[in-house]
Amino acid sequence: MIVLDRLALAPGLVLLVTDEGDGLPRPVPWSVDADRRAVSGDGAATALVGLLGAGSRTIGAFRITAWQHTTVVGERSFGVDQTNESVVVGEQAVVKWLRAAEPGPHPGTAVLDALQRHHFDGMPAPWGLLEWTAPGDDEPRLLATVDTLLAGATDGWTWAVDDLREAVISGSPEVVRETGHRLGDLVGRLHAALAEDGVSAATADDVAGWEAGADRDLEHALAVTTGEARAILAAYAAEVRAATRVPAGAVGSSLVRVHGDLHVGQVLRAGAGPAAAYVVTDFDGNPVVPPGERLLPQPPALDVAGLVQSVRHAALVLRRHEPHHDLAAVTAAAEMCEAAFLTTYAVTVTSLGHPGLVQPDLVRGFRLRQVCREFSYAAVHLPRWSYVPEAALPALLAPPSPTEPS
Q1: In principle, which of 80, 158, 202, 286 could form an S-S bond with 206, CB 3.0–4.6 Å?
Q2: Residues of the chain predicted below pLDDT 70
């Protein structure tokens, strides 16, 4: 491990920027006294929050952006995902240490800045960022973020499954209809806020790029999958290619900065019923897309497709773990949620002055791209997830039911 730079956090605690031999810098909170990576309870995350108290500033090659600050103490682990490690500080803030400092500008930084400027309140209020500029870099690399902890919140892979279960057991679709309305309003306000920085028009090259990207997603999935998953994917490959051709008239479609990796797991919910709070999180963009490309304007249909397809995946999760539920009832509940989402999304963005963000003709193609990526994700990272794309792909290519928007 080569240390490229260091930032003093507190007595006995530093943040190292290291190179472990692959040329990609990594932020490593370090306990000097214990001579090891700092873990939850050592105080590194608390110290980072403390640095925000002095406001935004530059310290050597490090840049601190501070939006708000409260003195907090006490740490507990919040968990580790594929790329990042999070620590809860004082039960008020979440510090996320990125596992790798990719070349900047980081998409999350730009998106958070835009959402702050346009007063979007459908996210955990950000406290600040820590960035670092490597020698020779034009833009800083994101090392860590600090956001408000939404107490008692669960992500959509829990609450969406719960809502679908409740709808099926009760025989009433009202719960999932309300969920869809709340999600549609949330994503609509998100896109409208990002559109305030400008809306551009898709060119013929953009459209060609979407089709080429769909082909790459399919080919990559075919290359990495094996067994039954690959057999299913190969059987539907021709239909996928045909269905991901962009409809005529897409040139000129609205492009804006988007979330880029939106699914129910990125939406936290705290509370229940009409008083429940929904917030969208994790603005890093899709991790399989190069950082520079994540900053490019995209069709808002990309986010819409990711969210509605994930509702269908939540239904598959429910059926997988509780197969006694009637398939038709589970599917109908998911379709009800999707329909309410799409309707409310359109109403919200239109009421906020951006009707061009409604792109129904583009949603299905981006849904199919997402399913192809789910095949790849399952093959490379989580084989037990394979049942989701294996079931989702045939369902998505089937003719729409009478209750599903086409």
Answers
A1: 202
A2: 79-83, 291-292, 399-406
- For residue 73 the two structure tokens come to 């103490």
In a domain, 402, yes or no: no
Beta strand segments in 182-271, E: 200-201, 254-255, 267-270
Domain boundary (97, 129, 148) is at: 148
Asked whether the beta carbons of 334 and 399 are under 8 A apart, the reply is no
Owning domain of residue 72: 2-148
Is 96 annotated for ligand binding? yes
Residue 148 annotated as binding?
yes
Q: What is the CA radius of gyration of the chain?
A: 22
Is 266 annotated to bind a ligand? Reply is yes
Separation of alpha carbons 144 and 142, rounded Å: 6
- State the pLDDT at residue 249: 93
Q: Are 96 and 124 in contact (CB under 8 A)?
A: no
Please indicate if the annotation marks 374 as binding a ligand. Answer: yes
Residue with tokens 């996928």: 240
Locate all alpha helices (DSSP H) within 262-326, ordered by sequence. 291-294, 301-321
Is 129 labeled as ligand-binding? no
- The answer to whether position 405 is within a domain reads no
Quote the pLDDT of residue 253: 97
Residue 135 to residue 157: CA distance in whole angstroms: 41
- CB within 8 Å of 139: residues ≥ 6 apart: 103, 104, 105, 133
Question: Based on the structure, what is the number of domains in the chain?
Answer: 2
Task: Clarify whether residues 12 and 128 are in a common domain.
Answer: yes
Using CB atoms within 10 A of its CB, is residue 218 exposed (0-12), middle (13-18) or buried (19+)?
buried
Q: Are residues 139 and 104 in the same domain?
A: yes
pLDDT of residue 403: 43
- The number of beta carbons lying within 10 Å of the beta carbon of residue 49 is 26
Residue 200 is inside which H or E element, if any?
A: strand 200-201
Q: How many CB atoms lie within 10 A of CB 174?
A: 11
Is 327 a member of any domain?
Answer: yes
